[in-house]
Design a protein that fits this description.
The complex is a heterodimer of chains A (245) and B (61). Chain A is mainly alpha-helical and 245 residues long. Chain A has 9 helices and 2 strands; from the N terminus they run αααααααββαα. In chain A, helix 3 runs antiparallel to helix 4, helix 3 crosses helix 6 and helix 5 packs antiparallel against helix 7. By secondary structure, chain B is mainly alpha-helical. Chain B has a domain of 29 residues. The chains are: A mainly alpha (245), B mainly alpha (61). At the A-B interface, helix 2, helix 3, helix 4 and helix 8 of A face helix 2 of B.
């Protein structure tokens, strides 16, 4: 069977596909989150240096990874919408922004609650934290820019340009702990080597997959609403059984 | 059990971090569901017969 990817790029075709995909990501996300939280709060042993405060890592690291990765995905869809002028790419970029902002917010808040007992402060203007805060402002800027422009297609282009420009911040966040002397520690997990106990690493990976699946499910769900909002009145929306009175 | 909630003295920080995360995730789920309900309602209104303009007669498009 050959799959025509360009056919999938039309909202009319993608809308039902996205609807079928959502439960396949939402339920595994819920299950993995339950297992991951149980492992993180009870299963994993107390850290010999940080005590139980380190348990924040199980939400802090996955949300921080997602905050950066979702931004790159948003910028990617923005680039696709600029390059190919495809409506669905712009709608996907639009759907990712709120979840990206949420992940950034979680990373900042949990980091703050972790910083207080371990570093003695909720916040410091060091490179890692400042660049992550800028990431939050970039997400909020993209969302605000869209709501400030009435024409959706113009808004798509403006948001794509802002997303792509802001993408420079992602490698800055990632390498900030190497490039500058920061309060924030370096990477604990690197391919091939790890300084963590196995059960801690497994818990963190499970939570990362949970965060991934959650982000995909909630983004697809929001994308479906955006498709309805932006294409209401069109023939394919009117033909949907669920939009008939 | 109390020992579990105390988190070795770090209970406030650990539970605050997990609590804030749970609250914002639940809030996002509530928000996307509300958005879908509104979008469906809007699509229904836009797709209903009285919302459609009368069929144009001899228009250019």
């Amino acid at each position: 069977m050959t799959l025509n990817w360009f056919r999938l790029a039309s909202p009319a075709t993608f809308y039902p596909v996205a609807g079928k995909l959502i439960p396949w990501f939402a339920w595994p996300a819920a299950l993995l989150a339950c297992v991951g939280v149980a492992l993180g709060l009870a299963g994993a042993p107390t850290d010999f240096q940080q005590g139980d405060a380190y348990r924040i890592i199980f939400i802090h690291v996955p949300s921080a990874w997602l905050s950066m990765f979702l931004y790159l995905v948003m910028a990617f869809w923005g680039a696709m919408s600029l390059g190919f002028n495809t409506r669905l790419s712009a709608m996907m970029a639009q759907a990712i922004a709120p979840t990206g902002a949420l992940m950034t917010f979680i990373a900042l808040v949990t980091g703050s609650f972790w910083g207080r007992p371990t570093w003695g402060t909720y916040w410091a203007w060091d490179a890692r934290m400042t660049s992550e805060l800028i990431l939050l402002f970039l997400y909020l800027g993209v969302i605000a820019l869209r709501s400030a422009i009435d024409d959706p297609r113009r808004a798509d282009r403006a948001c794509a340009v802002l997303s792509l420009t802001g993408a420079i911040n992602v490698p800055i966040i990632y390498y900030s702990v190497k490039w500058w002397n920061t309060l924030h520690q370096g990477a604990s997990v690197r391919p091939g080597e790890s300084k963590m106990a196995t059960v801690m690493l497994v818990g963190m990976l499970i939570m990362s997959f949970a965060a991934w699946f959650y982000s995909i499910a909630v983004t697809l769900h929001r994308a479906r609403s955006i498709m309805l909002e932006r294409e209401s009145g069109s023939a394919w929306v009117n033909a949907l059984a669920e939009t008939r009175p | 059990m109390n020992e579990f909630f105390a988190m070795g003295g770090y209970g406030f920080y650990v539970w605050s971090a997990y609590g804030v995360t749970a609250v914002v995730i639940v809030a996002e789920i509530v928000a996307v569901r509300a958005r879908r309900r509104a979008a469906l309602l809007h699509a229904r209104i836009a797709g209903s017969d009285d919302a459609r303009p009368a069929a144009p007669t001899g228009s250019v498009r």
